[in-house]
Amino acid sequence: MMINIEKVTVNIGVGTAGEKLEKAKKLIEKITGQKPVQTVTNKRIPTWGVRKGLAIGTKVTLRGKKAEEFLNKCLDAVERKIKAKSFDENGNFAFGIREYIEIPGIKYDPEIGMFGFDVCVTLKKKGYRVKNRKIKKSKYPKRHAIKKEDAIKFIKEKFNVEVLD
Predict the structure, then answer these.
(1) 132, 108 contact by CB (below 8 A)
(2) Contact at 8 Å (CB) between 39 and 57?
(3) Could you tell me which residues are beta bridge partners of residue 61?
(4) Quick one: which of 10, 57, 137, 142 has the fewest CB in 10 Å?
(5) 3-class DSSP state for residue 40?
(6) Is the pLDDT confidence value at 1 over 70?
């Protein structure tokens, strides 16, 4: 079975609502070309000044061809190197970009400032729909699941990425 990219999620957590969050939203819209959504807290953490329901971040989910193109740009920003510990047991992986100006073709915007962000990639195989559908939901066999090794092999072959130990 062939592995595909289900989605690429781009996330910026700023920790507070207000001007900083608005700048992060602007940045995500600039680099992805899609309108971001706010992420809110589920917990109350008084020591950090965080209350339940407070907007503290922003994210965008990319799918299809747009996701592949954006992932390619982001891999160029990290010099096509990902650590092996960035992969989970289900074959998904994530990496961070320290500053958005590392992405080829994107220039510094003094209005936005400097932000870093996370790129999370979810992989799938044909047949995964059975576990997510609403009607007649069922499990798929373990032999069909994507393993960490499969994901590493896929990313090496498809995107020419070096996986570091």
Answers:
(1) no
(2) yes
(3) 9
(4) 142
(5) strand
(6) no
Q: How many Å separate Cα 9 from the centre of its chain?
A: 3
| DSSP-assigned states of every residue in 110-145 | TTT----EEEEEEEEETTTHHHH-SSS-----GGGS
The helix-helix angle for 19-32 and 64-77 (nearest 10°) equals 110
How far apart CA 34 and CA 142 sit, in angstroms, is 35
Contacts of 127 (CB under 8 A, 6+ apart): 1, 140, 144
pLDDT at 151: 93
The two structure tokens encoding residue 78: 């990290």
**Domains of the chain in sequence order:** 3-164 (3.30.1440.10)
